[in-house]
Amino acid sequence: MNFRAYIKMLRVRNWVGYFLISVLGYAIFTKLNAGISETLLFYALVCLYLGFVFSVNNCFDVKEDLLRGKKNNPVATGEIKQKEGMAFSLLLALLGMLLSLFRGLATFCFFSVLALLSFSYSSPPFRLKSRPFLDLLSHGLFFGALLFLFPAVFFSTSIEIPHVFLAFSVFYFSVILELRNHMEDYEGDRKAGVRTAVCALGISTSEKITYCLSLLFPLFLLPVFHATSSAVLLPFLITTSIFYPAFCTWKHYRILDIYSNISYLLIMLGVLL
């Protein structure tokens, strides 16, 4: 058995942003007061889920990844057969579902919905990834709002209006991330016949839409800061006043990433302090 190839199937390096979404939800909904055993189980489920999403994506993105020349997909490079990759992916999902039962039926159902939605994104016959605009909607849910809300279900915490605002902002940011990913993969997707939202809109239009959505992103954070804590509202406004001229001048999405990380960190501090 090629253990190294199976580790590559997880694509751990791609977890960072999505793992941080779960950390944000954990901090917001537990206020860092959860027990060690509960916390370990929660993050075990998060890791199994992220591993499943990227692993199953590898199984069905073979043609696209070959055209892109990507070497981080063991199924595309022939290190693992597709059937073996699918078995490994489903094992991760089933293990996560079994572990989620320790937190009750609600957690099991929520985790199952996450797994099913992400599976439908990558796998035929649904393959939401290749259905324009459903790709954005599904990604915004399973790699955005629902991932953020998962700790609320896991730790049996009530969801209040500020949480809804925050979940929507995470959904919105996840849609931007998906557009950016599809723009990077545009040529490979187009040649492989994968019709993403970016392929449907065209690269030029997609770039303009993504840029405009990025400029509007702070507006979806403002209600969250207003409802969270007045102590972090001023730092948010200062950060935003720096973000706009920097982003408009250089038009680099790394600036948006830094801005979003700082903003969500401020929200976290506003809830915890």
Question: What does this molecule look like?
Answer:
With 273 residues, the chain is mainly α. It has one domain: Orthogonal Bundle (Farnesyl Diphosphate Synthase), CATH 1.10.600. The chain contains 13 helices and no strands. The mean pLDDT is 95.
Strand count, sense and closure of the main sheet?
A: none
CATH class: Mainly Alpha
Number of helices: 13
Order of helices and strands: HHHHHHHHHHHHH
Anisotropy-based shape = globular
Mean pLDDT: 95
CATH architecture heading: Orthogonal Bundle
Task: Please specify the SSE layout and strand pairing.
Blueprint: H1 3-10, H2 16-30, H3 36-60, H4 62-68, H5 82-100, H6 105-122, H7 134-154, H8 161-184, H9 186-192, H10 197-201, H11 203-228, H12 233-250, H13 253-272
Short description:
With 273 residues, the protein is mainly α. The protein has helices at 3-10, 16-30, 36-60, 62-68, 82-100, 105-122, 134-154, 161-184, 186-192, 197-201, 203-228, 233-250, 253-272. Helix 2 (16-30) runs parallel beside helix 7 (134-154) and helix 11 runs antiparallel to helix 12.
